[in-house]
Protein 1
Amino acid sequence: MAGDLTDLLDERHVTLQLRARKPPSALREIVQLLAGTGKIDNPQKFLEQVLAREAKIPTPVQYGVAFPHARSDLLEQIVIVIGRSRAGIPFANGRRAQLIFVLGVPQQLINDYLVCVGTLARIVADEVTRTTLLQAETPRQFIDALKGSL
């Protein structure tokens, strides 16, 4: 999966300056990065799926990182879109997420998703890597830091 994960990381799917201050707005801002990339036909519908899952099972935050996601028939492959907030976005457990990795998962790729999110969680658990991600000045630097940690 590590080789496949590098293929899923795209600098067009990274925003380093989220303007939103609340989870629904932040998720909307992040998912909007999918518009026009050809990865999904209906980003708005996917956002609704992510928000519905958040309402049912809120995403916890650990190390200042959150992994909201949704299983979706709108996708043919796993997609990862990433937002960064210097102030942090308060999620359900009261902790703030500075890094938000939104994952879209086709129904048939649940096992691949588990490997993918597990790998990302391991990467961001490393304080040096997390600091590098928080200090990246461009989406390219951010993606390169992630890929360099695989």
Note: The chain has a mean pLDDT of 92.
Protein 2
Amino acid sequence: MHYRKANGTLAPKVFKLTTRVVRPGEEITIAARRPFVPITTRTYHPGGHALEIQVNGLGFGRVRFEYLEL
């Protein structure tokens, strides 16, 4: 996750989901949720955030999304 900071920049936070050995040509599906609920250690700021999958330390497929404060 790349969370928007108060100054508008993005700060990466890595969440380790699983460790797997995948053979060549093998496909896997991984699902996870990251709720945007108030917590004491992180303040969520409205605006653009991003999600990126990381495999062996390399980022793949960053997707941007907007967080709207209700």
Note: The mean pLDDT is 90.
